[in-house]
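Researcher: If convenient, please comment on what follows.
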Amino acid sequence: MTLLVKICGLTTPEAVEATVAAGADMAGFVVFPPSPRHLDLLHARDVVARANGRLHKVALTVDADDALLAAIVDALKPDLLQLHGKESPARVAAIKSRFGIPVMKALPVAEAGDLAAVADYAGIADRILFDARAPKGATRPGGLGKAFDWRLLDGLEAGLPTMLSGGLDPHNVAQALNITRSPAVDVSSGVERAPGDKDPEKIAAFVRAARAAV
């Protein structure tokens, strides 16, 4: 199995360089002001330019309108849009049609019943990202360092490519992969010194641990 590794929430050129050096596949850039990893589009170009031709660029948004999405596409030139809000299947289809960019839809998971939503996006989204459901009252839907019960994904036939996220770090990613056999993993807070401050050593350790597990 060829594993895809995504490092999300990159905000500095140094973090992008560390992601490249570690041998990751994908770089995630968050455009959502409540997040400590928010990347202001006015200052994004220098950061994102480091990923051009070296990493698959993913732009993460939360319930963005078309005007914001257009600004994100113009500034970041992403290879993939990650929709991390409550975007319906119809909204996902509309975004794909308008912008012509592949879409990964994030689904919050806390219990087995949450996986029923996968079928709604099959044939519409290009990939599903499984993330832990944010606790009630949280100011953002992801990047909280919270894991869900990975056993819920055992035997799941999603019908489209998937990615595992939520509470992963260099110490538990191998266990998560052993349980889920996920073809892709995504990490943000698990490779940080502090919220939004990426640690190059943790990024490298995460990629090594993930690659060694498959």
